[in-house]
Each structure stands twice: as C-alpha cells, then as structure tokens.
Design a protein that fits this description.
This is Putative cytochrome P450 oxidoreductase. The protein contains 23 helices and twelve strands. The chain is of the alpha+beta class. Strand 10 and strand 11 form a beta hairpin.
C-alpha cells in the first residue's frame, strides 16, 4: 500500500537527493565534473521519460501519476540542494568562522562582490574590517588577514597544496596550475634552468632591444599625452613573447593590441569574475558553442609553439628549457597540451604582472617630484645601465618593493588547500580540505605589518626600517616551493625600463589625468590591471 501511494514518489526522490549529498557530494572535489554531472542528469531524465511512456513497467497508482519521471528528477535535485543549503547554513565545520550569512550558502555571494566593479580585493578588505582576521567568504573558503598565517600557508615547509582555482587550465597543465607537489617539483627544476644567472644574462639583449623600441615610441610623442599603462603592457608582452615564441608580438612597433593580448584580457577578466566558481570553467571548454573562443586560442597557441619548435632562435630563451624537458619525455598528446600551456604561462606571468608594477611605479614617481629627481640623480651617477650596476641602486629596489606592497600584482591572493589533518595557526584551528587565501592587498596595508601602511614611503626599505614591522609577511611573489620562478626576470625588466626612462626624460601628469580615476579604474582580474596612466614626457 505504501509503495502505491501518490505521495511516496516525491518523498523517495527527495530522500535519494539528501542521501547522495551526504554520501557523495560532500566528499572530494567536484569542480571538474560539472559537465559530466549535467550530462548524467539529462540522460537520467530522458531515460525515465522514455520509461514512463513505454509499456515495460506495470500500471500502478504511482506510475499513473502525470509526469512522474520528471518528478523523480525534480524532487531528487530539490533534495540535494535542500540538504546542501541546510548543511552549509547550520551544520558545516566552518560555521564558527564569522562572515556574511549568504557566503555560507554559495560561492555566488563572493562572485557577486567581484562583479560589482571587478575589484574583489576592495570588497574583501571591507569584510575583514567588519569581521576580523578570519572571514568565511564561501561554503568551504576562508579569507585570512592574520600575519601569523603567512608562514604555515606560503612558507617553505607549508603542508598546504594548491587550491581548486588551479584547475582553471584543465585538461592542460602548466607549472603554475599543476597541483601534484611531486610533479610540480620536477617541472620546477626544468624551469629554474631558464631563470639561472647565466640564462638571465642571455636575456638582457632582448630587454635592451624592446626597451629601445619603447624609448623610440616616447621620442616620437614628446610633449603629448601617452597612456603608459598601454605602452608598458606592449613592452612586457613583446619581451615575453620573444622569450616564449622566439619573436615579439610587434605591439611596440605597431602601437596596437594584437590577438593574444585582446584574448588574454577577456579571459583574465572572466577568470577574475568567476575565480570562486571553478566548476564553471569546464562548461566553456567542453560545450559546443560556448567553447569557440577557447578552441580558437588553443589552436593559435599550438601554431605558435609549432612555429617556435621548427624555427629555433639564435639565442636561448625560456621556452628552450621547457622544450628540452618535453623532448626528453614520451611526447604524448597530454605532454604537448601541457607544453602549449607552459608557453602561454611564460607570456602571461611575465607580462601582466610586470607591466602593472611599472605602471603603478610611474604613477607614484610622477606624484613625487623630489623622489623622481633623487632617483634620477642616483641613476645618472652610474657608469652604465647593466643589471650589475642597477642592482646597487638601493633606492630603485626600494621603489619597486614599495610599489609591490601598495599594488601587489595578485591583490586577492593565491589559493591554498589545507591538508587533511587541518592547520593550526596560533589559537585558530582550520579544518582539513578548506580553501584558504591571504589577500595581499589587505595584509600589506595592515598596521601590524607596516607602519603608515597606506602611504608610499620607499625609505621603509632602506633608511627607515622601523616602518616594516613584520618583513616575513611581505610575499608579493608568493612563497615556498611555489614562489614565482620569474621573479628575478621581472626585476630585471623593471629596473632596465625605469632606468632608461629616468635618465632620458622628465615626466608630468597629462592635463586630463586624475589620481582618483586612475586608482578607481584598477580592476582585479586575478592579476591587477591598472587604469589608464596618462603621462607627458620631455627630454632632459
């Protein structure tokens, strides 16, 4: 009699959803399985509908119910989401951490914050001011502002692993997105050859070549307003394109965006918006119609890599070392896909971050005439502008560090996943398999770490060390085994470009420049993208 009741069908379907949530979906990572799950439920629905209209099943009161097949799927899914929301709201192991209530329920909350102005770092800072050092910003995610958390999360002996965000490049993997620690360590050894002291010396002629192109562009526009955000981007991308594909993108020469930059800007903004919805990435890669741009980009990268392989450059580049590692392996289809992903990483990681730092640095130099003149005088005193000479200019290093402090290249921070046994940070215990992140923008402006934290004071890195209260909490390039491999190359490019410009030109803001507009137009697209910086150059 029970099985013949009309009410039993929704109840059983709902109960199955609750059971599946607790026994299956609560365990492990499901972010890469979204498309497969969608296909499963579509096939299940179609199968049940076909079964409903067949004569296979006996006629019962329950099976005479209109649309019983759709009801099974509907109430099953309702059971899944009801169970999930109740669990997250009332019973989750992170419920003792403060934060907005809606953040408990779904990552759509933090995504809505990112969508406001693409300035998630700003919204995260507001949450920390309201809720404290540990804020729950998602169902299984904490944002952490505690200086004591830096070492256990980003230190050399940290037990954490990379967070689920790093699945964004799947099924392709690069040095940045590979999550397996052993595989990463093996790849890192290959990459480190490409950033050795000797390798960096080999890259210096390329830096000189593109720095000269930038200077030529400035010379032809003396006295005119120049959007230096754009020009520094062109310079960095041309440099890294040369080091990845054996040739630049000709953006400096042609004074315009090229395909790769246009495509990257769109992708990075999408990633910045959906960085907490990792499950959505596979839909834009596997669903026909949605994956048109993705497939176009993969094809373009493959063409560039093939061209680079078939036309090796006269001078070694970063890709030479990555390619050497590839050629020593079995050269599977996956290996080739990973090779194209590494080539893309060389371009992106070494260009976006470097150009943003140069842009923000010149913003502060243009604001502080005395600082500009002092640094100019120190550079004038050098016998040449080689890296060996530039490294000795302490004020130059201080200006770079202070820029990275106030304007970190990855302002919202780098995701990590706590180990299964959890993580103890002083008196705070964080359960295992929880996504954690320290927003650099927020921590680097914390008074416990830096005195006068919102002021641009390069001397804190030279003669006023008392303004740096906790140097261990400053990690603009990440830390531990995952520290940025290209850090020294970035410093090389920044030093050289800045020195070439300061020794030749005086700068002022263009009449239509606005400090507020420049800062407000900065967006968080995982890496920071500054607003237009409009400067006027005059020969000294």
């Amino acid at each position: 009699m029970f099985l013949r009741s009309l009410s039993v069908l929704p109840a059983l379907a709902g109960l199955s959803g609750v059971s599946v949530h607790h026994l299956l979906y609560r365990h492990g990572e499901w972010d890469l399985k979204g498309v497969d799950m969608a296909i499963f439920y579509i096939v299940l629905t179609l199968g049940l509908v076909a079964l409903q209209y067949s004569s296979i099943l006996p006629a019962t009161e329950v099976l005479q119910r209109p649309n019983w097949a759709l009801d099974i799927v509907k109430y099953h899914i309702l059971g899944v989401y009801t169970s999930m929301l109740l669990y997250r709201a009332a019973f989750h192991r992170l419920n003792r951490f403060p934060g907005p209530f809606l953040a408990r329920l779904s990552n759509f909350y933090v995504t809505s914050l990112a969508a406001k102005k693409l300035r998630l770092f700003e919204e995260t800072e507001k949450l920390h001011k309201k809720h404290g050092d540990y804020v729950r910003i998602g169902p299984t995610e904490l944002s952490i502002r505690d200086p004591a958390a830096v070492k256990p999360i980003y230190g050399s002996s940290a037990k954490v692993s990379k967070g689920v965000w790093y699945t964004c490049s799947e099924p392709r993997l690069s040095l940045e997105t590979v999550r397996d620690k052993k595989v990463h360590a093996m790849q890192r050894k290959v990459w480190d050859h490409g950033f050795s002291l000797q390798a960096l010396e080999d890259y210096e002629p390329r830096l000189s070549y593109y720095a000269t192109q930038l200077l030529n562009a400035i010379d032809s526009r003396l006295g005119q307003s120049m959007n230096m955000t754009q020009w520094f981007t062109y310079c960095s991308f041309d440099v890294m394109g040369d080091l990845a594909f054996g040739k630049g993108f000709n953006m400096l020469a042609e004074a315009k965006d090229q395909y790769f930059l246009t495509q990257l800007r769109g992708n990075m903004k999408a990633i910045g918006l959906t960085s907490h919805l990792s499950w959505i990435f596979p839909f834009f890669k596997r669903i026909p119609g949605l994956n048109v741009e993705y497939l176009k980009n993969i094809q373009w990268l493959g063409e560039q890599v093939d061209m680079r392989i078939n036309n090796p450059p006269d001078r070694p580049d970063i890709f030479s070392w990555v390619l050497h590692g590839y050629e020593k392996g079995p050269k599977t289809k996956q290996d080739y896909a990973n090779l194209t992903c590494d080539a893309e990483l060389i371009c992106v990681a070494g260009s976006d971050t470097t150009s943003a730092t140069m842009t923000n640095m010149f913003f502060h130099l243009a604001k502080d005439h005395a600082l500009y003149k002092t640094l100019q005088a120190e550079l004038d005193a050098l016998k040449d502008l080689t890296q060996e000479s530039l490294k000795g200019v302490k004020l130059l290093e201080a200006v770079i560090n202070e820029t990275l402090r106030l304007h970190p290249a990855v302002p919202s921070g780098l995701q990590r996943l706590t180990p299964p046994e959890g993580l103890q940070i002083n008196d705070t215990y964080i359960p295992g398999d929880v996504t954690v992140c320290i927003p650099m923008h927020t921590l680097f402006r914390d008074e416990r770490v830096f005195a006068q934290p919102t002021e641009f004071i390069p001397e804190r890195w030279t003669t006023r060390s008392e303004l740096v209260k906790d140097p261990s909490a400053f990690f603009p390039f990440g830390g531990g085994s995952y520290v940025c491999a290209g850090k020294q190359l970035a410093f090389m490019e920044i030093r050289r470009v800045l020195a070439e410009i300061l020794t030749r030109y005086n700068i002022t803001f263009a009449p239509d420049h606005s400090d507020d507009a420049f800062l407000d137009d900065t967006v968080d697209a995982f890496t920071v993208v500054p607003g237009p910086l409009k400067l006027i150059f005059q020969r000294r």
